[in-house]
Amino acid sequence: MTPSGTLPASTTDAPDSPAARAVRRVERECGSGVVVRSELERRAVAHDASHYLMDPAAVLRPRDETEVGHIFAAAAAHGADLTLRSGGTSLSGQAVTDQLLVDVRRHFKGVEVLDDGARVRVAPGVTVRQVNARLAPHGRSLGPDPASETACTVGGVVANNSSGMACGTEFNTYRTLESMVLVLPSGTVLDTAAPDAEQQLRAREPELFHGLLRLRDRVRGNRESVRTVERLFAMKNTMGYGLNTFLDHEDPVRILEHLMIGSEGTLGFVASATLRTVPVHPHVATGLLVFPTVVAATNAVPELVGSRCATLELLDATSLAVSQRTGLAPPAIMDIPVEQQAALLVEYQGDTAEAVQDLGRAAAATFDTLDLTGPVSLTTDAAERASLWTVRKGLYTTVAGNRPQGTNALLEDVVVPVEQLGGTCEELTGLFDAHGYRDSVIFGHAKDGNVHFMLNEQFDDPRQLERYERFTEEMVDLVLGRGGSLKAEHGTGRIMAPFVRRQYGDELYEVMCELKTLIDPDLRFNPGVVLSDDPRSYLRDLKTAPPVESEVDRCVECGYCEPVCPSQDLTLTPRQRIVGRREIARAEADGNTELAARLRREYDYAGLQTCAVDGMCVTACPVHINTGDLVRRLRAENHSKVADLVWGAAARSWAATSAGAAFALTLASHLPTALPVSATRLARAALGADAVPAYSPELPAGGSRRSRLTTPPARPGAAPDAVFFPACIGAIFGTVQGEGPSTSEAFLAVCERAGFRLHVPEGIDSACCGTPWKSKGLPTGYATMSERTLELLWRATDAGRLPVVCDASSCTEGLETMRGLAREHPRYSGLTFVDAVTFTAEHVVPRLPQDARIDSLALHPTCSSVHLGITEDLLRVAHACAEDVTVPVSWGCCGYAGDRGMLHPELTASATAREAAEIRSGDFEAYASLNRTCEQALTEATGRPYEHVVQILERVTR
Fold it and tell me: Which residues contact 59 (CB under 8 A, 6 or more apart)?
């Protein structure tokens, strides 16, 4: 790690630079923890989802509005530029800088639901999905519905005036904003909901107050300006500043707050926004309409909009052909001999099933009048609807994931009047062909005239850069010639800043320039974004993608993985782990061996030691990257032969090793706490934190050998119904409170009550799912354990005839992985693994009484339950235990990851912090999960006794 007290390298190299002086002042006023010290992290945070890259002089992470004010003041005093960043999912280059990068994602997480969900007050670092999860119990959601809702934050949604598939211009941020707390470049903080907000603004910013009125009157007094503004803002439009506010609002406060929307951090900071919400319609019907041409499809848009559809997504011929190559498209597309066809994905929503049926019947009459290539049927089946949406959502995955190595995937958006959409798509396709862009799909929100298109480009090739410039100039002429806007919902950013004047004309461009100077007189906030007088500025600071390890080389740096990563608030996210490898590769390619060595040193802790390798990133990644695969590979490469030999020996004598670990825990539980704590602290200091687990007083005593488990026949003389594989973690860790049946004992008990007989195989004490070795990258031990465990289970199951049931979700997943990797023994593919929760939900619960349920239960799903697809089974068992079951809105991977939470307790503490706070604020009768180490993690984090849900089921069904 970068030593405390030193500045990031680029600031240190210029100690008298404005940025360096500003950073020193911030440190004096805010103390430690605001300035990012790690060279690796500073470079990793520089990357966002756009195709631009600049190395920030420093990264700052303010913890509250006061510290934001200190940063603004320091930047102003020393003349440093700054850029605000939250989720880093913007695509137009509006969140990169070579000066001060102010990261507000980590600490600005507040959400306050108001008026039973009718309004919500949100801080900028919260994702759209997280806000909607808080609103869901009220049947409400935010109006903006961007496709990146899992990762994009409200800060970016406000800064870009984001919209999405359904919200159009009616429910975007501009239309649903009620008020905001904003911080101006001068440091003035204004709550626009305050009764005296207008008086405050007039008193504290008189020049700004009167300047806004002057610009309002200037725009209104120019008929051509009014016509241009009304025309452009009748569509989705995020080019330039939101000048429509000068027509829509009278007083300076309302004008100012709406100018902040879509200003992309160039006018100040929105510390919180209060937004009106929209109702969620729970019943949905979806259908796919295929047309002979894109013009035929777009010509049908007005009629379909008139049928009251909620969404209407266009897919051009290339999109259909690309989706066919995935093999995931429904038959309606797979069977098309694609030439010029296009499709519209249409969806109808209602509050009741009957309402959706009525909409569908009315829509059928509209369908009959359209020029379709085949019949249309609307489906309400969730699986069928998901299959249809796979066509739309899989386009980015397919094109970006299969781009040539070293290229960047550009996702652009434009908007034209709906009547111009078909011709625009045809001409765009012609431009792709003329410039040699292959597989450049066109898709998007047809009812708004808003389409996206994708390009793969290699910016370190001068010829391709020239091609990109020629294409961009012709595309700009095309869109503006058809009366459109060059940005509909992605924001102007750097990519379209040089073209704002061309779209708006000189008069309105001058209004924007005067507005910028009025609010940010020194032009320090995000310079080069939204406005640029340099016609070629969009061609500078373009990102290149040096090849890295094959597991992650196809990463597009979108950031979708970040909100699900347990280390996101401690060290690095999956995106940052990947770009960290790219930064190392770039340093090596540049011959900067000193920098490469420093980055590698810092990567060991931030990139490797604190990765939980839980694989949650792959559940969010559009190109299906599991960063844990990279980390396991690097751990394997970094491990010494001694470590591999030691762990290999542990695998060969696993019965004794696991029994020894259990004995050590039991012994430690009987000693004064200070003794085992001090002993492990000394050992960690000598051998390394990544080698020796830390002892904590919250750890339980050891468990019992698995071979002691008995399986009396539920039906005398009957053959076993399944083979039971009790997880070894239950033998190492005893029960959370040191009493009552273990998870394995509880599971056998409920199975016996339900009339099922399970068989525990001989030699079980020596078997393991192999996860401890695989996660650490220790191949010798993993190979030993795989061969032993799979052969043991093959014999016990009668060559795969019986299913294997495991009572820890991570171990069930580990067994499935082990089977999948045993390619040299294909017979093991016949083994079937079932988690105990699934077996219980499907077979046991229906046979047990459910009249003694407890009142309330807090439930923690796990990363393994997500990967296995058994979270619904977990909920079924939980509801058999309790009248009321609560899954925390903020639940996520606990980061314990086998022994990772003992090696690096700070990882688990960070990963569980928000969920623990949510749990401690409630009152529940019991607490449950489905994996012993996760239960331990939540017990330590919350101070509440978490146990396996089957243990609770066993108690309530006695």
Answer: 8, 35, 36, 41, 42, 45, 46, 101, 103
Q: Of 426, 506, 491, whose CA–CA distance to 49 is shortest? A: 491
CB atoms < 10 A from the CB of 305, how many? 15
How far separated are the first and last CA of the chain, in Å rounded? Answer: 54
Strands (E), 830-888: 833-835, 854-859, 882-886
DSSP letter (8 states) at residue 485: B
Q: Which two tokens stand for residue 793?
A: 């289970």
Mean of per-residue pLDDT scores for the chain? 93
What gap in Å lies between CA 118 and CA 139, rounded to an integer? 9
Cβ proximity of 758 and 751 under 8 Å: yes
> Using CA atoms, how far apart are residues 453 and 434, in angstroms rounded to an integer?
15
Tens digits of residue pLDDT in 115-150: 999 999 999 999 999 999 999 999 999 999 998 899
d(CA 600, CA 583): 10
Query: Which residues, 6+ apart, have CB-to-CB distance to 377 below 8 Å?
Result: 287
Residue 434: alpha-carbon gap to chain centroid: 36
For residue 719, the number of C-alpha atoms closer than 13 Å in the C-beta half-sphere is 6
Would you give the distance in Å from CA 520 to the centre of its chain? Answer: 33
What does pTM read for this prediction?
0.94
- Report H helices in 420-505: 421-435, 462-481, 500-504
Contact 791, 766 (CB under 8 A): no
Q: Give the residues across from 542 on adjacent strands.
A: 52
pLDDT digits (tens, 9 = 90+) for 601-616: 999 999 999 999 999 9
Q: State the Cα–Cα distance between residues 504 and 506, nearest whole angstrom.
A: 7
**Whether 159 contacts 145, CB under 8 Å:** no
Q: Looking up tokens 């030999």, which residue turns up? A: 645
Alpha-carbon distances of 376 from 335, 366, 747, rounded to whole Å: 14, 11, 49
Contact 418, 275 (CB under 8 A): no
CA Rg value for the chain: 30
Closest CA to 143 of 170, 124, 123: 170
Contacts of 393 (CB under 8 A, 6+ apart): 147, 622
**Dihedrals phi, psi of 254, to nearest 5 degrees:** -65, -40
Q: pLDDT of 451-501, one tens digit each?
A: 999 998 989 899 999 999 999 999 999 999 999 999 999 999 999 999 999
Under 8 Å CB-to-CB from 417, ≥6 apart: which residues? Answer: 235, 449, 482, 483, 484
Residues 76, 726: Cα–Cα separation, whole Å? 63
What is the distance of C-alpha 529 from the center of its chain? 25
Q: What single-letter DSSP state applies at residue 539?
A: G
Of 68, 145, 155, whose CA–CA distance to 105 is shortest?
155
- Torsions phi, psi of 58, nearest 5? -160, 150
* pLDDT tens digits along 307-364: 999 999 999 999 888 888 877 777 878 888 888 889 999 999 999 999 999 999 999 9
Dihedral sign for Cα atoms in the order 878, 884, 888, 889 = positive
* Sign, CA torsion 450/456/460/463: negative
Q: Distance between CA 242 and CA 279 in Å, rounded? A: 26
Rounded distance between C-alpha atoms, residue 190 and residue 454, angstroms: 40
- The CA distance from 310 to 496, in Å, is 30
Q: Which residues of 644-656 are buried (b: 16+ CB within 10 A; e: fewer)?
A: beebbebbeebbe
